[in-house]
Amino acid sequence: MMKKEHYGAIDGLRTIACIGIVMMHVAANTDYSITGFFYNSMIPSFTNFVFLFMTISAFGMCCGYYHKMLNNQINLSDFYAKRFKKILPFFALLVLIDVLLSPSLNAIYEAFADLTLLFGFLPNAGNISVIGVGWFLGLIFVFYICFPFYCVLIKNKKRAWIAFFLSLIFNFVCSVYFDVGRTNILYSSCYLIAGGLIYLYRTNIRSLNQWALLVAVLFSVVLYYLIGANTLTCLLVSSSLLIYAIFNRGGVLQNKFTAFISTISMEMYLSHMVIFRIVEKLGLHQVIGNDWLQYCLTLIIVLFGTVIFSIVAQKILHIFITKFDQLLA
After folding, report:
1. Does the residue 96 lie in any domain?
2. N or C, which end of the chain has less CB nearby within 10 Å?
3. Lowest-confidence pick of 94-103, 123-132, 212-221, 319-328
4. Which domain holds residue 118?
């Protein structure tokens, strides 16, 4: 069995994406009197870090399971059980908290869909309000379900490139005809296949020039803000960042802080809006005014609260799951 490959700098990308999405949601759910390019244009654009998460998720899955899946070294029952066991307990806790905070019959319907983890198959998964950010989890779980087929699609580089170009066409068709967006697996498949393509070329990437890769990242980011957000610019930014992280060793992307945040990045992503709503109910989002200072204070409180909640919830759930496993043994 091959040892899972690890690229420490990708922890930095997860950290940047996670914090960026929290920054975006705090800004979007408050009405601070702040102007300027950074607040009005750049922070809202951080919503597209979800595409970076998709590309990283696909690459990470390939690092752990691609060769094992193609060589029939995976027990599918264990594979899917591990996915449920890793995701469901924490997500179920958040769903329960959300329903208790805003109880209704609609919330119960949505909670049921959430708890199956299969809600990503719904055509309107993005409209689910119970843990609204959970649409990303629903999409990723659909990807997990399709992963054996995904591995066959990218079995070699030629096949992977064909699949990638077809996914771009599907992305376009989804936009102009089927009227579906990023919550749909077919619309977002180009980002997932891009992660697989980058995995296939990971050894080639190591031989590239670091400064050329950095220039590529900067070029893609500048192009994104000049042209605007679309599939191609989001793909360029996500792919160039991931390629740079694969090449990079150490530095700002790989350290103890990013390694720590990376381990709870999914939990932070899922729970930060619950923490924000608590902060909002306590009135902590409007303690010292309506400008940058208050925004930064709110952001720090939400980030700190989300980290604490993620760690404590993980530990408590681990204890319960361990005891439950012992009872069944």
Report:
1. yes
2. C
3. 319-328
4. 10-266
Of the candidates 52, 66, 58, 63, the residue with the CA atom closest to the CA atom of residue 240: 52
pTM of the predicted model as reported, rounded to 2 decimal places: 0.92
Split at pLDDT 50, 70, 90, the class of 328 is low
Contact 22, 268 (CB under 8 A): yes
Domain-located, residue 200:
yes
How many CA within 13 A on the CB side of residue 241? Answer: 25
The contacts of residue 64 (CB under 8 Å, 6+ apart) are 4
Distances 298 to 47, 218, 270 between C-alpha atoms, Å: 18, 30, 18
Q: Return the SS3 of 248.
A: coil
* pLDDT tier for residue 167 given thresholds of 50, 70 and 90: very high
**Residue 186, token pair as written in the block:** 């077919």
Read off the tokens for 298: 């709110």
Q: Are 72 and 208 in contact (CB under 8 A)?
A: no
Residue 240 in any domain: the answer is yes
Q: What is the DSSP letter of 40?
A: I
Tell me whether residue 48 is in a domain: yes
If one counts the domains in the chain, the total is 1
pLDDT of residue 1: 41
Nearest C-alpha neighbor of 241 from the set 260, 255, 220, 224:
220
